[in-house]
Amino acid sequence: MTKSLNELSIIEAASALRAKEFSVRDLWDACANAAKERNPELNAFLELFEADDAAIESAQKRIDSGHAPLLCGIPLAMKDNILIEGKIASAASKMLANYRATYDATVTKKLKEEGALFVGRTNMDEFAMGSSTEHSAYGPAKNPLDTSRVPGGSSGGSSAAVAANLALAALGTDTGGSIRQPAAHTGLVGMKPTYGAVSRSGLIALGSSLDQAGPLTKSVADAKLLYDVMKGSDPLDATTITSDTYTKKEAGATLRIGVPRHLLAEGIDEDVAAQFESTLAALEAEGHTLIDVSLPTSGYALPVYYVIMPAEASANLARFDGVRYGLAERGGTLLEDYVKSRTSGFGTETIRRILLGTFVLSSGYIDAYYRKADQARGVLRAEYDAAFESCDVIAFPTTPSPAFKFGDKSDPVSMYLEDIFTVTANLTGMPAISVPMGNVERDGVSLPTGIHFTAPLGADDLLFRIGALVTGETL
Asked: Is residue 134 included in any domain, yes or no?
């Protein structure tokens, strides 16, 4: 069956554009029209951009010249916490409802240089705090596979946009699984790079030692393409790394896949666990080796994360005080200005995490909580390093269950457990990817699941290799 233009992958569309099967304008119109039609139902985009005629014409000329990069003329979606000069970047918060970016994020600049086009800015959990996009100040995004269910979060608008074919691919940000978890819930590929491999300049910060921008795509090849464009050191971000920062990880013709079965004994839906085992068995049948690995401290990764992340969030969000920029509510005193602005500007989940972060950093508690969590983070990294001496990648299910219905995880702790398999990659800085591993049924609806691989620091390309083995792609 012939695909509609907006259903193509980046690689497919790039090839067809060069074969003159259609024009850049045709491709833009297909995505823009689909977005206008379905976005009222899905709320995937907070804003749809008007066609940039000059950019479309420029992309077409570059393609016609025969010297255009593959991303030239490709319509992408951008998460609402990534700056695009001249566009609002609200991080789905009332606090920044009218903030208009005065410069491009480094990743935005790199994509523009390639000739990519932007369909709009996507919905998200406020300041990237959440796993369902239910915490957006502008209403939740919906899963296009079943609109009674969440699309994941915090990059849920990006995942919904790509899964519904409103854009060919999207950018998200990942602080504890916010690219990989929505990818699993919508049947996409989602990748978190090694910390520092992609610049954070121009990203609205949540956790500065955790955040990374990355791709949400329809294929592993598309994810690799976007990653290769975005990666690289940046003078605007002192935490970025160079290609030789980490020792190159060499892997053989067949891969050694570590499986920490002691962490998989409970808490995972039976059919999700069965899909995971089936996917591993298929890899083993192709000649790859399964190896049991031990990661004893990983059982504590979630509480460690929910000490460190709120601590960093409370520091990063202190700048939104009603004085410098953002929402400004006025009271009778300066203190009332602060209180009224922050109370009106932030949602419930954001306030919860600011309070938690302020508590763990406070005098008398910083030693008991934050510094202990930071020490545990070092232990986690050492355990993974030790495990990687016997294996090339480590596998988990991306999430314990498929996409859940709205309201099913109203208890904050149950929501936080969504991130149980993904947070460790952010705590350690290691790269990780989620790729589709088959569907399970809920209430008569077939829902996707994802398999998650973590690789050593700097071994991002190894993730594309293992991901392509699962999806059957040739890179």
From this structure: yes
